[in-house]
Amino acid sequence: MRRLLNRQKKQLTNLKEELINPEERIILLSAQLIFHLKLFQILAVFYKKKFAIMKHIEKCRKLLVLFMAYSRTRFFLQEDVLADKMKAEVSRREFLAAGLIALGGCVGLEKNVDFREIRPFNTFTKHGVHFYEEGKGDLDIVFVHGYGGRAEDWQEQVKELSKKYKTYAIDLPGAGYSAKPDEKITVERSAKDLEEFVGDAGIEKAFFVGLSRGSSVIPKFAAKNPEKVRGIVLCSAYIEGYTEIDKPIIDKIIRIPGVRGIALTVAKFVMGRWSVRANLEKLVVDKSRITEGMVESYYEVVRREDGFDAFVNMGENLDLRVTNEEISLIRTANIPFIYISGEKDKLVEVKDWESDEKILKMTNTGHLINFDKPQILNEIIVAFVELHK
User: Fold this and answer.
1) How far is CA 28 from CA 14, 126, 258, in A?
2) Are strands 321-322 and 243-245 parallel, antiparallel or unpaired?
3) What domains can you pick out in the chain, each with its CATH number?
4) In sequence order, what are the residues at sequence separation of 6 or more whose Cβ sits closer than 8 angstroms to the Cβ of residue 30?
5) What are the helix (H) ranges across the chain?
6) 265: which residues sit within 8 A by CB, 6+ positions away?
7) What is the pLDDT of residues 36-57, one digit of tens each?
8) What is the pTM (predicted TM-score) of this model?
9) Residue 299 needs a FRET pair 20 to 30 A away by CA distance; which of 92, 178, 241, 315 works?
């Protein structure tokens, strides 16, 4: 037990400097507090001691758990379906006091946003897979989103490129509005899902454009289905030997001994629009590109029970490497490809810009290239397609 606590303390100390996001802070601190309260109870039972303070500790623990659930309702207690259960545990005054104290300096009350960005394209669902299909050109382009993303991320590309090509933007199973699998959502599983989608949609051969995790899915798909691929555009990819990747804070938190389950529970209840916006803004240079409608659209998906669980599932099985073997198979099949990276991408950084002529650097651009510089990305894709059609 002492070894477990020492290990946890060391990992928490290492994380302190990185916790700049208020909601990440409340996730970690609440999880740590609940963990230690529960640990105290277990030790007391183990040593067969009955302390008068035990009932107060249990009440405090329940209060924290209830506050997590209550934070999602934005203090409309009289309208909340959990109200009766909450009132049975603690008085309204106690609950609000604890909630306001916990909220102080960490989570602000949110104002309702009663609009979303319009989804202007043709939307379809086949076999539980949600996707957009637009355009009537002779050449097909399939867009594959990144971790936490969805088909709508490609609106700027679909809107422009569908004038000349037939475009598809897919919500991979586990993301967006597609079905949420119960099994592990690995990159390999997503590559298989992409293969099934291409078959169901009747796509004979296409260009594939991926972002981040999508850029990890496409090479795995292409290595097994080279006859289906005309060319590949990889944006913000983690290519083995060329790039380095930094794991998100939440990924580090859930690996602390004894904290994982509690941290995920807290994260589920405190995640709000503020958190969605903060995380999106970290991935771009031009923060004005992150609109209220975009934030609302992301939040709409992740706030659902199955949406958050699938997000965590995908994150726990996140291996973004594009291996040397996959690149070799793509080259052997004579599939043209390019890699585009943002100069100011803090998540996936290129080790050596001069190491490969296929790496294109976009200046003053972050991880979400399609948000930061949509028009330039469109021009690169069109030039690539026209060169290799």
Assistant:
1) 13, 39, 12
2) unpaired
3) 2-106+249-285 (no CATH), 122-246+316-388 (3.40.50.1820)
4) 64, 68, 102, 262, 266, 270
5) 2-15, 22-46, 54-71, 83-89, 92-103, 155-161, 187-200, 214-224, 249-253, 260-270, 273-281, 292-302, 305-316, 324-332, 369-372, 374-388
6) 31, 65, 68
7) 555 555 555 555 555 555 555 5
8) 0.66
9) 92
